[in-house]
Automatic annotation (TrEMBL):
Species the sequence originates in: Methylomonas paludis
EC top class named in words: transferase
An annotated GO cellular component: cytosol
EC number per UniProt: 2.4.2.1, 2.4.2.2
Keyword Transferase attached: yes
Name of encoding gene: ppnP
Described function: Catalyzes the phosphorolysis of diverse nucleosides, yielding D-ribose 1-phosphate and the respective free bases. Can use uridine, adenosine, guanosine, cytidine, thymidine, inosine and xanthosine as substrates. Also catalyzes the reverse reactions.
Name of the molecule in the record: Pyrimidine/purine nucleoside phosphorylase
InterPro entries from the UniProt entry: Ppnp, RmlC-like_jellyroll, RmlC_Cupin_sf
UniProt keyword terms in alphabetical order: Glycosyltransferase, Transferase
Entry's Gene Ontology molecular function annotations: purine-nucleoside phosphorylase activity; pyrimidine-nucleoside phosphorylase activity
Taxonomic lineage: Bacteria, Pseudomonadati, Pseudomonadota, Gammaproteobacteria, Methylococcales
Length: 104
């Protein structure tokens, strides 16, 4: 899906890691939430509340997921899932555009 229709966009940006990771939250009529964001090259560790689906729209990164001691290479057009109440680290190799879906 290349676009979302009939959504509410939260105007205030989510800014992390001294501005190197930014996103905007969008809410759907059913109450589900996604963020659309951009990560500059660097290494970032995130904590999850709910499980997440991370779709990498463009760019490239290595990902260290919970319970996996190997880094996975993820490129534009690929995705990965992260369990809830977990921590994961990304090493962004090339500036990356992403969509994060919060799963229930």
């Amino acid at each position: 899906m290349s676009e979302f229709n009939n959504v509410t966009v939260i105007k205030q940006a989510n800014v992390y890691f001294d501005g190197k990771v930014n996103s905007r939250s969008i809410q759907f009529a059913d109450g589900s939430v996604k963020t659309l964001g951009f990560m500059q090259p660097g290494e970032y560790t995130f904590n999850t509340g709910a499980p997440e689906l991370m779709e990498i729209l463009a760019g490239e990164m290595a990902v260290a997921l919970p319970g996996n001691d190997q880094w996975l290479t993820i490129k534009g057009g690929e995705s990965f899932e992260v369990p809830g109440n977990a921590q994961f680290t990304v090493q962004v190799k090339v500036a990356s555009d992403y969509c994060c879906s919060f799963l229930k």
